Amino acid sequence: MIAKKVGAIDMPLEESPFVLALKRADSLVIVRNRQCNMYSRIWCVCEAMFGMEFGMVPNKTLVTGPDTFSDDTRSCTEAEASQNSDKRRI
Q1: How many whole angstroms from its chain centre is CA 34?
Q2: Strand partners, 64
Q3: SS3 string of the chain?
Q4: Of 54, 56, 70, 76, which one is least surrounded by beta carbons within 10 A?
């Protein structure tokens, strides 16, 4: 199921259905929560990276939710993934 959205493991991220859809989008929506710093998750880092590449950050980015992790100083290189192959790929 996820492979259909983000592409097969051997498909470059730039060619995945998810990235192609983001490239055509008018804006990037970020929904934060109180339980998890979204940038501690590798797919959220990936979304932000492509959002920046496609010129969506900051002027075409909509952010909602609590600012719970605004003081977090961890690097995106510490982001985690449920699948190690995802982290290596991104």
Answers
A1: 18
A2: 31
A3: CHHHHHCCCCCCHHHCHHHHHHHHCCCEEEECCCCCCHHHEHHHHHHHHHHHHCCCCCCCEEEECCCCCCCCCCCHHHCECCCHHHHHHC
A4: 70
Four-CA torsion 88, 7, 54, 69, nearest 10 degrees? -50
Q: How far is CA 19 from the centre of its chain?
A: 10
Separation of first and last alpha carbons in the chain: 19
In this predicted model, what pLDDT tens digit does every residue of 39-85 receive, in sequence order?
999 999 999 999 999 999 999 999 999 999 999 999 989 999 988 88
Kindly give, in sequence order, each residue whose CB lies less than 8 Å from that of residue 12, ignoring residues fewer than 6 positions away.
Answer: none
What pLDDT, on a 0 to 100 scale, did the predictor assign at position 10? 75
Tell which residue, 9, 6, 13, 78, has the closest CA to residue 42: 78
